[in-house]
Specification:
The chain has eight helices and 30 strands. It is an alpha+beta fold. The chain has four domains: 187 residues, Chondroitinase Ac, Chain A, domain 3 (Sandwich), CATH 2.60.220.30; 41 residues; 113 residues, no CATH class; 95 residues, Immunoglobulin-like (Sandwich). Strands 1, 5, 6, 7, 8, 11, 12 and 23 form an eight-stranded antiparallel beta sheet that branches. Helix 3 packs antiparallel against helix 6. The longest helix has 31 residues.
Length: 473
């Protein structure tokens, strides 16, 4: 995620006085190198600012919004640290708990987007100004990739390691993404309209019969070789087969020699076809489609293929070759421009969230748009085996990472096995943090292979031994 303005100025400020590496360790992440990064935003305290991120998130900081721990108003430049967590992987690698205890009733939350925001000056953490008669708030208009009105707003109490319900606020549809989708649909429709159905002006598998016996052909020229050359200019094969039969094109009757044909089987015409007296048969197969059979007069040679009438020859020759070429090149150029525009729009659409969720916060920390997980689950008795003979220790944490549910559920390992409630048919992996900066993993693919339907039908709790592989970080 990048800031869309003042980038170089912020970078300069970062080098100038944000050199302190000491950060307040609030939550223990499993792997420091995989902990989702914060972005750094420089804000002049007396002026405030509105910061727009590339995914559409907007952070509105009013003037004089920061306060020191001694309640003095902050002056000068402030370093604001901000990050968003949208995936189950983000949540796992941040170390933030998704447990929710409400009056002793324990549940797990699934997120529609989480953010953490802090502010520092001279390496000291700041508060949001709550002085009497000058109380301030910072509005976070966060991009959310999960729609729905059933997500509530929570604040994470780090001392109690629990989420605190704040409010239910309906999301706001991202009108910009809606317009992007609309433009994409229009461009795709235009692509369909102008994409040449064949190479200009016809496909390389197209051919014509020998039409020299006819004097009513458009732009007819009695010069036999010139007519052959003309067909080649337009990209058509000259079959040399004289046609004396009629065929239908789009329901209208034409002489076969006055139509452009496509060889559906992409065969090469044998040389003997144009050098010997032959018999030929056209047998209708389907709309515009025929079986062409060519037999030499001595009955020693037979050639057959399936052909399709694609246009009247007259309509092809009615337009000069240069005009065909110009039109083809114009369409190709327009198609290239549309493809570039579509690629750009698809990238933007991917970054753009479906909705926005807004809240005015009055203290720094971790916030979450969540709902309680209420999914069907299946109970199994789990044991774990790690490659290379590695062992888990008693009460070591095992994390079930539900990517499509945007949540993480943690269990304490028991040597002799323990019961786990799984949500079946989900994108789920299981991870255990191991010594030496490694993790033991039971993959999503392996999880998908578990027959949960069979487990549900069982009258007893099924036992599953999860074989995990090791990955070095």
């Amino acid at each position: 995620m990048k800031i869309t303005k003042n980038f170089f100025f912020i970078a300069f400020l970062f080098l100038l006085f944000f050199s302190c590496s000491e950060k307040k360790e609030l939550i223990k992440e499993p792997f420091e190198s995989l902990d989702p990064e914060f972005i750094t935003i420089a804000i002049f305290a007396e002026k405030g600012d509105t910061v727009n991120l590339t995914n559409g998130t907007q952070i509105i900081v009013p003037p004089n919004a920061f306060m020191h721990s001694n309640k003095k108003i902050v002056r000068g430049w402030v370093e604001v640290l901000y990050r968003e967590l949208h995936s189950a992987d983000d949540i796992f690698y941040s170390g933030i708990s998704m447990k929710y205890d409400s009056a002793g009733i324990k549940n797990h939350l699934q997120t529609a987007g989480m953010f953490e925001i802090r502010a520092l000056q001279n390496c000291k953490f700041l508060k949001i100004n709550n002085c009497e008669n000058c109380e301030k708030s910072i509005k976070v208009h966060m991009a959310s990739y999960q729609n729905g009105n059933d997500y509530n707003f929570y604040f994470f109490d780090e001392e109690k390691n629990n989420w605190v319900f704040k409010k239910n606020v309906a999301p706001e549809i991202n009108s910009r993404k809606k317009e992007i989708k609309k433009e994409i649909d229009i461009l795709r429709k235009r692509m369909e309209e102008i994409t040449p159905k064949q190479r200009f002006p016809v496909d390389e598998d197209c051919f014509i019969f020998d039409y020299n016996a006819f004097i009513d052909i458009f732009s007819y020229d009695s010069n036999y070789q010139k007519n052959i050359n003309k067909s080649h200019w337009y990209g058509i094969k000259w079959s040399g087969i004289q046609a004396h039969e009629y065929a239908k094109f789009n329901g209208k009757r034409y002489h076969a020699a006055l139509l452009v044909w496509k060889d559906l089987l992409k065969k090469e015409f044998p040389k003997w076809i144009s050098k010997h007296k032959i018999q030929k048969i056209l047998k209708e197969l389907d709309t515009n489609k025929y079986l062409l059979t060519v037999i030499s007069n001595d009955n020693k040679r037979i050639y057959s293929t399936e052909i399709e009438a694609i246009r009247p020859l007259k309509s092809l020759y009615a337009k000069k070759l240069n005009n065909w070429i110009k039109e083809y090149k114009r369409k190709v150029k327009e198609l290239e421009e549309i493809k570039k525009r579509l690629e750009n729009l698809e990238k933007i659409k991917k970054l753009e969230a479906d909705v926005f969720r807004s809240y005015k916060i009055r203290e720094f920390g971790i916030y979450n748009w969540d709902k309680i997980m209420k999914e069907e689950n299946v109970k199994v008795f789990a044991t774990f085996e790690i490659e290379g003979g590695k062992k888990l220790i008693e009460n070591q944490q095992i994390s079930c990472i539900y990517e499509d549910k945007k949540s993480v559920i943690k269990y304490n390992y028991k040597k002799n096995g323990f019961e786990i409630l799984f949500i079946p048919n989900t994108k789920t992996k299981i991870i255990a943090v191991m010594p030496d900066n490694t993790m033991a993993i039971f993959s999503e693919q392996k999880f998908q292979e578990i027959d949960f339907e069979k487990i549900k039908e069982s009258s007893e709790v099924d036992k599953i031994n999860f074989k995990m592989y090791l990955k070095k970080i």
